[in-house]
Specification:
Elements: H1 15-28, E1 34-35, H2 47-58, H3 71-85, E2 94-97, H4 101-111, E3 117-122, H5 126-134, E4 138-143, H6 154-160, E5 165-171, H7 183-194, E6 200-204, E7 229-234, E8 247-250, H8 253-266, H9 272-283, H10 287-308, E9 323-324, H11 335-346, E10 348-349, E11 351-352, E12 364-367, H12 372-389
Parallel strand pairs: 1-10, 3-4, 3-5, 5-6, 6-7
Antiparallel strand pairs: 2-8, 7-8, 9-12, 11-12
Helix pairs in contact: 2-9, 3-9, 4-5, 4-8, 10-12
The structure holds pyridoxal-5'-phosphate.
Length: 391
């Protein structure tokens, strides 16, 4: 067989999909597995959005559209983002993509050269590190620690941002920790970055509508930041639309033009009937996102209380997103081994914190995308494992 490009050796992955595949294998062999591994809401997409997609198909939205997105959709996104973040954007700032994920890759392709440094949260969404390294740039971790409520360490940011830094990635509410950046932190980060005018900011706000305590603060609203910030958001988490593949970036116009050109090269455009469904999501009734948030809050409370009742596990109450990220070092086993035993021997699929970077070691990530009844059952199984490990 012919060989592969050298860059492939630097491409990472998302372990969640591998664990899901293994869990499905076990299920196919007759085992009962409780799924707490995958980061997707277990709710159905709201009916009005599904109906809008069907209508769009009947109306003939079955052709190519502009690479940056349908003009009426870009305008609606600009208006929604402006209202929610308190910053003013127009349609020319918006690029619609098949899911929010392409925004990560496309923006990094547009701003990173080999040898540039990109700062990113660790533990964090594994695609950040993967894409930075794939592009030949240097991935510089910014540690998120439980002692600091998984907030960024501002001194560390100050130390690590320098002449080679080209990009800083922020993610709030955060995957996998559920931490959020309070407005005072966002303000302080902007203050630090104002000293470094050549640094772009990629603000991954895909969980912005899932905040249980406090408020969502976007760095784009801070003085001087709109001109160099990309807001990433989308429909997967907020409207339970993971399979539709619909997301967007909001950014300075010159960058938006490059990102749209990359879209022309990669996807041509995002499916047009899916964009019409996205318009219904933004302009239709907003009960569903609120109801999802309430449901996730209840589940979070149940799982955190259940985990903290177990000897050797210490779990913070995450203020956002739909994950909990307990410290399991007290169980005295390597983290990957605990995750493996939990799945293979106790039928609970969860992710080792190491799936989110080296600094995730010592933690497990449980997704709250399952019913309270199943979370309760999972807690019983986790208790069994803890009793075994602690003798
Ligand atoms: C932090 C973060 N950013 C971006 C994404 C991408 O989501 P999507 O491509 O489904 O919009 C995810 C999905 O898990 C995520 O957790």
């Amino acid at each position: 067989m012919p060989g592969f490009a050298e860059a492939m050796s630097r491409l990472g992955t998302e372990t969640a999909f591998e664990v899901l595949a293994r869990a499905k294998q076990l299920e196919a062999a007759g085992r009962d597995v409780i799924h707490l591994e995958i980061g997707e809401p277990d709710f159905d997409t709201p009916k009005n959005i599904v109906e809008a997609a069907k209508r769009a198909l009947d109306e003939g939205y079955t052709h190519y559209g502009p690479s940056a997105g349908l003009p009426e959709f870009r305008a609606l996104i600009a208006e929604t983002v402006s209202r929610f973040r308190g910053v003013s954007y127009g349609p020319e700032h918006v690029v619609v993509t098949p899911g929010g994920k392409p925004i990560l890759f496309y923006v990094m392709m547009a701003v990173l050269d080999p040898g540039d440094e990109a700062l990113y949260p660790n533990p964090g969404f594994p695609i950040y590190e993967s894409m930075i390294q794939y592009l030949g740039a240097k991935a510089v971790p910014l540690a998120l620690r439980q002692e600091n409520a998984f907030r960024l360490d501002l001194d560390e940011l100050r130390d690590k941002v320098g002449p080679k830094t080209r990009l800083v990635i922020l993610n709030s509410p955060q995957n996998p920790t559920g931490g959020i950046l309070p407005r005072e932190d966002v303000r302080a980060i902007a203050g630090i970055l104002r000293e470094h005018p050549d640094v772009w900011v990629l603000s991954d706000e895909i969980y912005s509508r899932l905040v249980f305590e406090g408020e969502h603060a976007s760095i784009a609203a801070e003085e001087g930041m709109r001109e160099r910030t990309v807001i990433l958001d989308g429909f997967s988490k907020t409207y339970a639309m993971t399979g539709w593949r619909l997301g967007y970036g909001v950014m300075p116009v010159e960058l938006a033009e490059w990102v749209a050109r990359i879209e022309t090269n990669c996807n041509s455009c995002t499916a047009t009937f899916v964009q019409r469904a996205g318009m219904e999501a933004l302009s239709g009734p907003q009960d569903a996102p609120g109801a999802f948030c309430e449901e996730f809050r209840e589940r979070r409370d149940v799982i955190v209380e259940g985990l903290n009742a177990l000897e050797g596990i210490d779990c913070l109450l995450p203020p956002g997103a739909f994950y909990v990220f307990p410290d399991v070092r007290g169980l005295g086993r390597p983290t990957r081994e605990i995750a493996r035993m939990l799945l293979e021997e106790h039928g609970v699929a969860a992710l080792s914190g190491t799936a989110f970077g080296v600094l995730g070691d010592g933690h497990l990530r449980f997704s709250c995308a399952n019913s309270v009844a199943n979370i309760d059952r999972a807690l019983g199984r986790i208790r069994d494992l803890v009793q075994r490990l602690r003798g």
